[in-house]
Amino acid sequence: MPPTLDAHVTKLLALILAAVSFAASGPIQTSRPTVTGALRVGAKLGAKPGSWSGRGAIAYAYQWSRCDARGARCGSIHGATGGSYVEVAADAGHTLALTVRATDATGTTAGYAPLAGLVAALHARIAATAQPALGGEAIVGSSLTVAEPLWSEAAGAPTYRWLACNANVRACSLIAGAQVDTYTVAAADAGRTLVAVVSASKQSVLSAASPVVRSAPGPVPVGRPTISGRLQEGKQLTGGAGTWAGSGSIAYAYQWSRCDAGGAHCATIRGATRTTYTQVAADVSHTLALTVRATDTAGLTTAYSSLAGLVAARDAAVVARTQPSLGGIPSVGQTLSVQGGTYTGSPATFAYAWLLQRERSSLRRDPGRRDSDLRDHAGRSGPRPRHPSDSRHHGRRPSRAHDGGHDSRVVDSGVRPSTTSRTPGFRDALSCSVSRASP
Known about the structure:
A hairpin with a 2-residue loop joins strand 19 (about 195-200) and strand 20 (about 205). Strands 25, 26, 28, 29, 30 and 37 form a 6-stranded mixed β-sheet that branches. Strands 6, 7, 9, 10 and 11 form a 5-stranded antiparallel β-sheet that branches. The chain contains 1 helix and 39 strands. The protein is an all-beta fold. The radius of gyration is 23 Å and the shape is globular.
């Protein structure tokens, strides 16, 4: 039986978490990449990288992939790594996906264009010359309406279906009963993206994708909050609000929370409401989390950093200066690898424990994962972890109110450099704890 997470915390001198969804290095995406062009075999599609903010010059790399009609079972297309792509016979009846990797002085971040498709055969009577737009607000209770597609020739009467997809507009599922050009956003859609499918004359086209659905009006988080600084008692951490889009000026409020080693049982820390936080003895062997509440003229939105930790003791021999990130695409069949991270001293070897984090519960270990690489079979992004409760207590004894926001299982522990995971659920995400195993 593999050791528990508590055993790792007790036996190893330094342990830090790297979250795939919240890697702190690399440019921040402020608008999605897009694909333009006619959806027909033989036509050329163009890639636009979207908008990014970063440190210094930003370089872009492209990878085109072929997916099934609902954006699942995607496979990268060999050699399709340029800013344009000519559709081939194998694309007919499929969707195409574009991944953009943006690199600046701090690292690399991946962005994902909405699905383009379905691709018409070379001799199809009609083909979509552009994907139709969506109008409306992606807020629960609001309505979205799809515009008329632009077809190469006159088309018959359209029919409609609606898809709910993950945050990267992949792995879509059909929404039962949604068969008109307008769709009222449901509570079950929160955290997902929505796409309309318009069909006419035996040809279908996907609309542009909605933003990630929100439960209420307010600013939209574009880049998640961050935590930086040395993870050690007595050292100061700095929180970043992340990147937001909103109406007019945006005001931010901060709350730090303390969680257990697995990111569960989080409780707000009384008085820790500034952008900086100095770690205390009670934080040792725990994780820390930052909640940012952004307010504009439309309302309030809450966003959450990734977990920072585990916090080292004041006299620890090895301390994490920066957390590692996870490189790779969080999609079915793709490999994730631990990257970066800096430490005091010179660790000779490392141990790894892969964690599966689910919304609304706590971190748990899943046996079998022993590697610094992980092949992710989730294909779905998330989570939207909820770190703090509203109760507070000072310093060493935070309130015991249960967070209910994290549910993570360890899916591996050990020292080998590669592994493959099983299939998690819709809003699962993966993270990796990296332990210094010897000096």
